[in-house]
Amino acid sequence: MQAYLKLDHIDKTFTRGNATTEVLKDINLTIAKGEYVSIIGHSGCGKSTLLNIVAGLTDCTQGCVLLENREVNSPGPDRAVVFQNHSLLPWLTVYENVKLGVDKVFASSKSRAEREAWVMHNLNLVQMANAKDKRPSEISGGMKQRVGIARALAMEPKVLLLDEPFGALDALTRAHLQDSVMALHQKLGNTILMITHDVDEAVLLSDRIVMMTNGPSARIGEVLEVPLARPRKRLELATNPGYLKCRQRVLEFLYERHRFVEAA
Amino acid sequence: MSMPAIKAEATAVAVTTTPPAAAAPVVTMTPKQPPRAEKYAKVAKETAVRVVPPLVVVALLMLFWELVCRRTGSTLPPPSKVFKDTKELILDPFFDNGGIDKGLFWHLSASLQRVAYGYSIAAIVGIALGTLVGQSVWAMRGLDPLFQVLRTIPPLAWLPLSLAAFRDGQPSAIFVIFITSVWPIIINTAVGIRNIPQDYRNVAAVVQLNPLEFFSKIMIPAAAPYIFTGLRIGIGLSWLAIVAAEMLIGGVGIGFFIWDAWNSSHISEIILALFYVGIIGFVLDRVIAGLGKIVTRGTSAS
Ligand SMILES: Nc1ncnc2c1ncn2[C@@H]1O[C@H](COP(=O)(O)OP(=O)(O)O)[C@@H](O)[C@H]1O
Ligand SMILES: [Mg+2]
Predict the structure, then answer these.
(1) Ligand 2 (ion): which residues have CB within 5 A?
(2) A75 lines ligand 1 (CB under 6 A)
(3) Coil/strand/helix, residue A211
């Protein structure tokens, strides 16, 4: 497999005063171009920390992140992030939120008119063009998340990083957005690294599922290939034996071998 | 567009809404538009509800004051006498007989000008220093204790020092305004900057905003509600300080007007001046609050 994004022996230790916690231990992961990889694990095991390290928002203690064989250790639009709580800037309209990134990334490569058209193109992709002049406080949670996705896509990232993008949404909205993301992945062929704690979501969307053990010192416990053909249809998969088998594997990992132990 | 699920839903919605849409015109025609007069009546009523109670209270207080101060030998004039004594000042605020013998308009505008200078400098310096203190841990450690001590010094205590430094009333008064109003602006700005959610910083980092863009596009709008709280406290303090400072520096200005009136025992003029000072202080506060409301539109709700 051709490595596109590579996490090489990553350790992360947080130091606060003289208390140190080792959160991640020896994380190795190789992701190919166009692949959709999910990271699943119990709450607090260090998923967000790992994603932030890939995004460059957090420094790792050991190891490195390689994108196209080049080390990346500061944040940048080539690894755009969709945050769990949307993180839209409330004083900007939907359009301006997307444009903020576009104006920076394509400052020299696109003309003003081209940038404006590109913002609208991306809002169209997530079907939010109609709400372009609304402020984040005026749209629903699902719509905010769509705009967050548009903002990330509009930067034409090499890798799209999603941190529990649907975690705060109700089940119907969530299904809706999962379908949208699947369709976008199909259409644009992005390389996606997504964090989730939802087993069905992981199996439905991913090519591979990375299962993390509980922290502290969380490792990658197991990596599962999801050999289901695309495009995938939610309803048809519900009875698909391959789907059920994958689901079973993840459930077993999470709830038998690595049961969540409430921190005492 | 390759989003079957969403498309399907969109058409489904369209289908279900079609019949009511067809019937809609009939429905909207039936309730007549409320006549214009009715709308005005409603607005008038709402205004009345807000304006009438304070008017009643003021009228009662005036009555009380009139009754108390009407007795012979009372040290303060009743409102009727105040009005009679100051009628000329009220009716002609624009006269100018040279020196400090000017209409109230000139005194007030001189005071407002000093406040405008001092306060503008305080706003710029306050926001800049507040940003520094809010953004940098070391700046905070170094400067915060200093600020906390300096801000407790009463405004007038600075006046002799600034007179010694500037050797002139005008810049000294402006300095006193500045030094009085700058602390709440610094402190509130710093709190606002410190409270910028990590998410916004992350967004800025991913987009790779440079420090200047980060300042103007993230920091200022994110901290705007806090900054305006500081600005509002600041304008109130400036107005408090200017009257006191002008009493001491003399010249044209509402503060010295009051002091001068006291020296010539024109108690009615003092009362009139206090009335103007109060109204202008109130208006200044409203102006900054209104400005804040316009600027922070949408910022507070997330
Ligand atoms: N800045 C930090 N300082 C210290 N500990 C942290 C910090 N950020 C996260 N942690 C710790 O790292 C662990 C993993 O956190 P996180 O990556 O957010 O987990 P997850 O996203 O899987 O729920 C948690 O135990 C958390 O307390
Ligand atoms: Mg998390």
Answers:
(1) A 48
(2) no
(3) strand
Rounded to two decimals, what is the model's pTM?
0.80
Q: Which residues of A touch B296 (CB under 8 A)?
A: 91
Q: How far is A88 from chain B (nearest CA, A)?
A: 8
CB proximity B5 to A under 8 Å:
yes
pLDDT by position in tens, chain B (length 302) = 444 444 444 444 444 444 444 444 444 444 556 678 888 889 999 989 999 999 999 999 999 999 998 887 888 899 998 999 888 888 888 888 888 888 899 999 999 999 999 999 999 999 999 999 999 999 999 999 999 999 999 999 999 999 999 999 999 999 999 999 999 999 999 999 999 999 999 999 999 999 999 999 999 999 999 999 999 999 999 999 999 999 999 889 999 999 999 999 999 999 999 999 999 999 999 999 999 998 887 665 43
Query: Domain limits at B213?
Result: 104-295
* Type of residue numbered B237: L
Which residues of chain B make contact with A74, given a CB cutoff of 8 A? Answer: 205
Per the structure, how many domains does chain B have? 1
Question: Is A49 touching ligand 1 by the criterion CB < 6 Å?
Answer: yes
CA A49–ligand 1 middle distance (angstroms): 6
Confirm whether B19 is domain-assigned.
no
Asked if residue B28 is part of any domain, the answer here is no
- Identify which ligand lies nearest to the alpha carbon of A40: 1
Asked whether residue B82 is assigned to any structural domain, the reply reads no
| Burial tier of B1 (Cβ tally within 10 Å: 0-12, 13-18, 19+) | exposed
Q: Does residue B146 lie in a domain region?
A: yes
Buried b (16+ CB within 10 A) or exposed e, B27-48: eeeeeeeeeeeeeeeeeeeeee
Cα A56 from chain centroid (whole Å): 14
In CATH, what number is assigned to the domain containing residue B187?
1.10.3720.10
Evaluate whether A142 touches A167 at the Cβ level (below 8 Å).
Answer: no
> How far is residue B64's CA from residue B69's CA, in Å, rounded to a whole number?
9
**Contact (CB, 8 A) for A37 and A31:** yes
